[in-house]
Design a protein that fits this description.
18 helices; DprA_WH; globular; Arc Repressor Mutant, subunit A; DprA; alpha/beta; Rossmann fold; two-stranded antiparallel sheet; 3 domains; about 400 residues
């Protein structure tokens, strides 16, 4: 008997498609606890509901059977969804309009074999009422030493406060030191900030930051790829760093020792094409030794204030279809044109269905859908992606 598994087949027949898919996403999130390239590929291939069924029934290739075996019978999906709702949150999945799809493109383009920890997040468990996609339109990630100095706190506070006052979202990890300073500076000026957690979004880590994290959830967002109740583990922090980098236009490091986790975040920024910036300190300060090393080795650009951060961190933009004859949408052989032709004017189709119809890789389909969305040619609804009316003029 599995009282927590009320999201299983016993009630699934009474659910709408959206609710069924939410339960499937939540179940798989608990099964793998973090990034899993093989599972993401399976979902892209067969859809999330069929992937969840395959995991439950062990109808999987060996690589997936190994990583799902330990928790495949632990179906707490309905309870997890209720837990996040009671904390003023929700589950955000690739099905949802607020999924930060274009922010995730950098991670989607990494090679799983080379970057096994760089996989796309399966889902985001989110606390707060702001829209995740909208809140990351203009964002700066700020990381640094947990044992920061007065100098580091002052510089981090000045830069992040000024940017937050200009409408930029500050993304960080809610840790002691520079992370906490960056969050507080944004809150002080009434700006927006996002805390990316290495534990469940319903938990506070460190526990001493419980009030700070609650304040962030009130005006910004607290997010995690781990389901409610998950305790922070050492490897979670390293995996979390890729999300901090991916959700922002650039990464700013204010103080870092020679063996700092901030350097790991910079590594991810460089892998996905985000600019990395570092603030220098005294040559006698061990707290700035990591920043100096990154600047010297060309891993980060030296910046000393807000103006230089803005100069180096132009918001990332995707190449969009412009309506000109040279655009991918107008070019008959372009992937966007093939995908647009596969989209219905009413109803919808999911990426794995479009992939099967067009013969394009799922990652290419997702990237093209984001571009079509941003160019106004397509949109996503509860039934999947559909073609907008103006995109079909002169068509069927």
């Amino acid at each position: 008997m599995n009282p927590a598994g009320i999201g299983a087949a016993t009630v699934r027949g009474d659910l709408g498609e959206h609710e069924e898919r939410q339960l499937a996403w939540a179940y798989l999130s608990r099964v793998v606890l973090g990034p899993c390239p093989a599972l993401t590929a399976l979902i892209d291939s067969v859809g999330v509901c069929e992937a969840a069924r395959a995991v439950r029934e062990r109808a999987l290739p060996p690589v997936l059977r190994t990583v799902t075996e330990r928790r495949r019978e632990l179906d707490t999906a309905a309870r997890d969804l209720e837990t996040i709702r009671t904390r003023g949150g929700r589950l955000v999945t690739p099905d949802d309009a607020e999924w930060p799809a274009w922010r995730m493109l950098g991670l989607a383009q990494l090679t799983p074999g080379r970057d096994p920890d760089g996989a796309l997040p399966l889902v985001f468990w989110v606390r707060g009422h702001r829209n995740l996609s909208e809140l990351t339109e203009h964002a700066l990630a700020v990381v640094g030493a947990r044992c920061s100095t007065g100098y580091g706190d002052r510089v981090a506070g000045e830069i992040t406060g000024e940017l937050a006052a200009r409408g930029w979202t500050i993304v960080s990890g809610a840790a002691f030191g520079i992370d906490g300073t960056a969050h507080r500076a944004a809150l002080t000026v009434g700006g927006a900030t996002i805390a990316v957690m290495a534990c469940g979004a319903d938990r506070a880590y460190p526990t001493q930051h419980e009030r700070l994290i609650a304040r962030i959830a009130e005006t910004g967002l607290v997010i995690s790829e781990y389901p409610p109740g998950t305790f922070a583990r050492k490897h979670h922090f390293l995996a979390r760093n890729r999300l901090i980098a991916a959700l922002a236009d650039g990464v700013l490091v204010v103080e870092a020792g020679m063996r700092s986790g901030a350097r790991n975040t910079v590594k991810w920024a460089r892998r996905i094409g985000r600019p990395a910036l570092a603030v220098p300190g005294s040559v006698e300060s061990a707290a700035s030794a990591g920043c100096h090393r990154m600047i010297r080795d060309g891993e980060a650009v030296l910046v000393t204030g807000t103006a230089e951060v803005l100069a180096e961190t132009a918001p990332s933009r995707l190449p969009l279809s412009t309506g000109s004859k040279s655009s991918e949408v107008d070019r008959p052989g372009g992937p966007e044109a093939r995908i647009l032709a596969a989209l219905p004017a009413t109803g919808g189709r999911w990426p794995h269905d479009i992939s099967a119809m067009t013969g394009l890789e799922a990652a290419e389909v997702r990237a093209a859908l984001v571009a079509l969305d941003m160019s106004g040619a397509a949109a996503r609804g509860e039934a999947g992606w559909f073609r907008l009316d103006r995109a079909g003029e002169g068509g069927e």
